[in-house]
Design brief:
Number of strands: 8
CATH superfamily of the domain at 69-191: Nucleic acid-binding proteins
CATH class of the domain at 69-191: Mainly Beta
Shape: flat
Distance between the termini: 114 Å
Structural class: alpha+beta
Radius of gyration: 35 Å
CATH architecture of the domain at 69-191: Beta Barrel
Strand order of the largest sheet: 1-2-3-5-4
Amino acid sequence: MNFTCQDLNRAIPIENLKTQILKSGIFAPIQKICAYILLNILWICFQFLIMSVQQLSEQEQIRREKLQKLKEAGINPYPPELFPVSHYSADIKNSFSEETKDQFAQVHVAGRIMSINDKGKVFFIKIQDKQGIFQLYVKRDELYPGEDKSLWDVLVKHGLDLGDFIGATGYVFITKTGETSLHTQSLTLLAKSLKPLPVVKRDEEGNVFDEVTDPEFKYRQRYADLVINPSVRDTFVKRTKLMNSIREFLNQQGALEVDTPVLQAIPGGAAARPFVTHHNALDVPFYLRIANELYLKRLIVWLRLGI
């Protein structure tokens, strides 16, 4: 006897069987398990998203939004071209006068933004270079004389933050308050800062009144400490000058400067417990030197010169 598909369907109604199975609740536990697994996956993804967002502060998120808007406006926030710097802040302040203003008719300066004073169509921006603080006078109609002011809004009005690196070109003049400033004719964004700097109070001469004194911050974020605390930077400069002076004096006396090994096969020079490491290429243990007097004594015996 031959059976057709229609005969088989009449004998066993497939559609009715599926409906009966769903109504009977046989697959209910499986559906619950699948729904439970799916909810857990969604919860893990949600927690991962929340954690990734929580790692950025509100200021960091805002700065990244500004970064995206700058890119959409066609402004490269990290241009590869070298910006030519012709003068520095201290040199301008010490040399500029009415008699020498012709020498400062075309000046190129660059630095990190330390303060922004928004006056609507005029911005007073103070930048910090390697010599100190210098003020930029930025006027909207001077920077963008045409009718299209969109770049002013994107770059200057809403795009600049404390910590950004900018370059400016213009001529030097003295404001009504008596401050030597640069009348900006062109402004270039050199690097967009994505992390905010700690805000400190400064007077007109650039002196800081509320320096960061937290030791944890000062030693873990030395880069930020060097930026906001001029006294720390001055300490580095003084140390470099002191070491150079000592080196110059000893060179004049005929001393010979040598380098001694930092890692030693046998620790010596003091009774302290040395730091132990392993040299993979030689497959031998090495010790961080405690004192270098043994090597200096060997050199004195060999050279018979001042070391």
